């Protein structure tokens, strides 16, 4: 049976990299609780329960038999950084401390510290803070009276008088510098000189493991934000960074963006490796001449050359972008014209006059016999065969004009009324037929 966490892209990383194993019921509840695109970064033990850190906060699982989820939105309230043999990180949720530990992907709690802020030692949010304050007041009544009198004097002082008490309370707070755009190594070193504790995390949704000493990374975001007032000696400054060759995402935990490389002229296998290293794994090859999609499963495209690409080189694109490559086979030119299809043979037409080819003669049709115009005698009543008038002789057979001999019944004739003799000696006369054409017919008298 397959692991549902391994099959889901939001949990695939922890399914393969974490040593903590969740029960089937916990896995089902976790997948139901995760939002669209909310990837899991690490899993921790939380007493008898579990804690799951995502890009949008922390999920606490209670009740081992029927898991229930409590969602804790950031920033997390950290009571104590990693300590002890388990490197536990103690956080505060609804006034109750939780000790989280045991993550293989986050063994020292860097992810947790990057997602939260350390509460100052005197913060009233810390458990028992109010009780300790009341106890101190009972034990130091004189000091309380003095402080109250000082506050009263400060309240009665004019607007132009300096507030010594307030000024003294802010002397230790510093304005947080702006490290955005700086090298991660330089920013971390500078922050440590200012007494800050430093943590680093991936600024994109890739959630790559980042160390504050990571070379060739650049700061995109930071927490606390630039310009805020904070006390460095009890706070953590978290840098969210990406590799220097990679553009910063538009927002924290946003989709990774990369610069499209120039692949024209590269072999397809080398271009594919370059794209895969950048996280661009949606690649479609096309034939450079025909534009048809190529199937690498049916033919090897490793040695094919890239002629064109989309998007073009130098453009910033998210890693979810579809990349199209137009390829040409080995030893072929990208600029060569596409092969033209063979022309279809033209249909045969009737031969022109004077050509050697001869068309098949049309079958001769038997014309109707016309009645004679001079006496009603039917033309062509003799036993001569009908002809289409295509042949004849100079003595009257070609036109039938006047009186001639050697004509055949059915031949065309002219003029109407002319007489002639057939080749077998019978009398013939030129009659007008029903079809409007004059032909030789038998002359009865």
Describe the structure.
Residues 254-329 form the PASTA domain. This is PASTA domain-containing protein. Residues 330-445 are annotated as: Disordered. InterPro entries: PASTA_dom. The protein is of the alpha+beta class. The protein has four domains: 4-118, PH-domain like (Roll); 174-243, Trypsin Inhibitor V, Chain A; 257-328, Trypsin Inhibitor V, Chain A (2-Layer Sandwich); 368-445, no CATH class. It has helices spanning 4-7, 12-17, 24-33, 110-114, 129-139, 141-156, 164-170, 184-193, 268-278, and strands at residues 40-46, 49-54, 57-62, 68-72, 76-83, 88-93, 96-101, 116-118, 174-175, 197-202, 217-223, 229-230, 236-243, 257-259, 283-287, 305-310, 316-318, 323-328, 404-407, 419-422, 427-432, 438-442. The strands form six sheets. Strands 4-3-2-1-7-6-5-8 form an eight-stranded mixed β-sheet. A four-stranded mixed β-sheet has the order 19-20-21-22, with no helix packed on it. A hairpin with a 2-residue loop joins strand 2 (49-54) and strand 3. It is rod-shaped, with a radius of gyration of 51 Å.
Q: Structural class, from helix and strand content?
A: alpha+beta
Mean pLDDT: 78
Strand fraction: 25-35%
As residue ranges, the low-confidence spans are 157-171, 364-402
Mind summarizing the main beta sheet? 8 strands, mixed
Global shape: rod-shaped
Number of domains: 4
What is the fold named in CATH at topology level of the largest domain?
PH-domain like
> Which CATH architecture of the largest domain is right?
Roll
> What would CATH call the class of the largest domain?
Mainly Beta
* Helix count, DSSP H or I runs of 4 or more residues: 9
InterPro entries: PASTA_dom
Biased composition (Gly residues): 397-407
Region (Disordered): 330-445
Biased composition (Low complexity): 387-396
């Amino acid at each position: 049976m397959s692991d549902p966490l391994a099959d889901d892209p939001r949990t695939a990383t922890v399914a393969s990299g974490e040593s903590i194993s969740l029960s089937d019921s916990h896995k089902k509840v976790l997948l139901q609780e995760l939002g669209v695109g909310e990837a899991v970064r690490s899993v921790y033990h939380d007493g008898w329960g579990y804690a799951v850190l995502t890009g949008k906060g922390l999920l606490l699982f209670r009740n081992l038999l029927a898991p229930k989820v409590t969602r804790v939105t950031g920033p997390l309230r950290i009571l104590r950084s990693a300590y002890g043999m388990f490197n536990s990180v103690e956080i505060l949720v609804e006034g109750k401390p939780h000790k989280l530990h045991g993550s293989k992907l986050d063994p020292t709690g860097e992810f947790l510290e990057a997602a939260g802020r350390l509460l100052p030692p005197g913060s009233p949010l810390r458990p028992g803070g109010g009780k300790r304050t009341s106890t101190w007041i009972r034990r130091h009544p004189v000091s309380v009276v003095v402080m109250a009198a000082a506050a009263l004097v400060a309240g009665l002082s004019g607007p132009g008088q300096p507030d010594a008490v307030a000024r003294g309370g802010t002397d230790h707070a510093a304005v947080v510098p702006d490290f955005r755009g700086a090298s991660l190594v330089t920013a971390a070193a500078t922050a440590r000189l200012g007494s800050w504790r430093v943590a680093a995390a991936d600024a994109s949704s890739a959630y790559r493991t980042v160390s504050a000493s990571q070379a060739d990374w650049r700061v995109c975001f930071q927490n606390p934000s630039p310009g805020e007032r904070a006390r460095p000696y009890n706070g953590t400054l978290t840098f969210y960074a990406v590799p220097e060759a990679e553009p910063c995402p538009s927002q924290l935990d946003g989709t990774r963006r990369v610069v499209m490389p120039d692949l024209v002229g590269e072999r397809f296998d080398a271009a594919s490796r370059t794209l895969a290293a950048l996280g661009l794994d949606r690649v479609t090859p096309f034939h450079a001449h025909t534009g048809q999609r190529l199937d690498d499963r049916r033919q090897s495209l490793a040695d094919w050359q890239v002629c064109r690409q989309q998007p073009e080189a130098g453009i910033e694109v998210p890693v979810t972008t579809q990349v199209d490559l137009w390829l040409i086979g080995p030893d072929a030119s990208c600029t060569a014209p596409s092969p033209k299809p063979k022309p279809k043979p033209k249909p045969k037409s009737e031969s022109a006059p004077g050509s050697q080819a001869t068309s098949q003669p049309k079958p001769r049709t038997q014309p109707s016999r016309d009645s004679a115009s001079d006496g009603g005698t039917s033309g062509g009543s003799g036993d001569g065969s009908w002809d289409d008038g295509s042949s004849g002789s100079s003595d009257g057979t070609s036109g039938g004009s006047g009186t001639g001999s050697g004509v055949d019944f059915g031949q065309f004739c002219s003029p109407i009324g002319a007489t002639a003799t057939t080749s077998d000696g019978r009398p013939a006369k030129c009659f007008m037929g029903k079809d409007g054409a004059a032909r030789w017919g038998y002359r009865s008298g």
